Amino acid sequence: MAKVRVLAAEKVRIPAQINSDVDSRRAFVVAEVGRMLSRGSFHGRNVVSCLPSEKLRITSLRLAESDTDEIERVLRKEVRQRFGLDPDKDSMDYLVAGSVRQGEDVKSELILFAVDNETITNHIKLLEDAGLRPVAIDTMPCALFRSFERSLRRQEDRERTLVFVDIGSRTTTVVFGDRGEISFIKQIPIGGEKLNRETASRLGVEIDEVERLREMLRRDKSDSQLDPSTRQVIVDTISSIAEGLAKEVSLCLRYYTVTFRGTRVEQALFTGGEAYENILMNVLKRQLPVDVATYQPMRGFDLTGEGARINLNNDRRGLLCEWAVAVGLGLKLQRRTTADDQQVVSHEGH
User: Fold this and answer.
1) How far is CA 254 from CA 184, 261, 272, 292, 293, in A?
2) Taking the CA of residue 102 as centre, how many other CA atoms within 13 Å lie in the half-sphere pointing to its CB?
3) Can you give the residue ranges of every domain in the chain?
């Protein structure tokens, strides 16, 4: 497999005080993307982007194998009844996850994706206002899986059943992969914003201060710079939320092994911005019934490009966990990318 060279990579944190305000957040994103492009490290203006996770509707459903010719009709009905969307106006797509046994019957397990048309329209306008040319829109779970899939180079790795978990700012995305295909997806409304919001509430401080305290705790292993009571509140809050997340992921594991009988999940690979949080990861390692490891999405990539050296090689944390979805987006149209028109990768809301 050809080695991927990263020419440039930049990221910016959206301030907590504007992240929940649609107009302020939009203006900030447009301005920051413009600044990134003006520095000249990126080539071209084509962009592959994914929709905000909180706007995407995902569900699993089963059809009798004899009904597969009527998939379109069944899915349109599901979109209308389950999500309240209009299949004539809004968008939907699906994946075939595999065959499952239900009693004496064998059925097809499908994964349905749906999103309202307004979300897509607004997303495209945001990209265009930022000076970009949208060439593809993806979903976060598919981009995440594509990122992981590239690392499974050996045949024995591709035949393993693994679960990939991205802990982002607003959601945790769980993706099961079996033999190189997505077989189950679950989005859990737990992420970094929840950790910060609940910690801020318990400490009686602003979210910006919580982010500073959490970073201090990560850097200072001896905890000498933190008041012991403050440290304990942070640890207790994150641990409590992590326990809830562990229960949700465990339910996904249980559903998967019951649905796809005879499969055994061997490992859970974690990524995302919150995969750096040792308190959270330690709880997950203790409570999940599978081996837990942290995934490095850019391992094996050529990071010698000037823009990559500055923003990736100098990252003190080294694992680059938060880039998994961006990597998957960049790989989506890799074959169509030429040296004269490299893609800018955007991941909104993560």
Assistant:
1) 12, 11, 23, 16, 19
2) 12
3) 16-194+236-347
**CA–CA separation, 62 vs 69, rounded Å?**
13
Contacts of 100 by beta carbon, 8 Å cutoff, 6+ apart: 62, 106, 107, 108, 109, 259, 260, 261
Q: What would the pLDDT profile of 97-122 be if each residue is shown by its tens digit?
A: 888 877 777 888 899 999 999 999 99
Among 2, 9, 3, residue whose Cα is nearest residue 342: 9
| pLDDT band, very low/low/confident/very high, at 140 (cuts 50, 70, 90) | very high
14-52: buried (b, 16+ CB within 10 Å) or exposed (e) per residue?
Answer: bebeebeeeeebbebbbebbeebbeeebbbbbbbbbbbb
Task: Report yes or no: 350 and 53 within 8 Å, Cβ to Cβ.
Answer: yes
Question: Who's near 157: CB < 8 A, 6+ residues apart?
Answer: none
**DSSP secondary structure of 124-182:** HHHHHHTT-EEEEEE-HHHHHHHHHHHH--SHHHHTSEEEEEEE-SS-EEEEEEETTEE
User: How far is Cα of residue 299 from the mean position of the Cα atoms in its chain?
Assistant: 18
pLDDT, tens digit (0-9, with 9 covering 90-100), for 53-63: 889 999 998 88
Is this model's pTM higher than 0.70 or not? yes
The separation between the first and the last C-alpha atoms of the chain, rounded to the nearest angstrom, is: 29
CATH number of the structural domain 16-194+236-347: 3.30.420.40
Is there a contact between 185 and 177 (Cβ–Cβ < 8 Å)? no
Angle of helix 228-259 relative to helix 192-203, nearest 10 degrees, comes to 150
Q: Quickly tell me which residue has 């050996």 as its tokens.
A: 154
CB 345 within 8 A of CB 48: yes
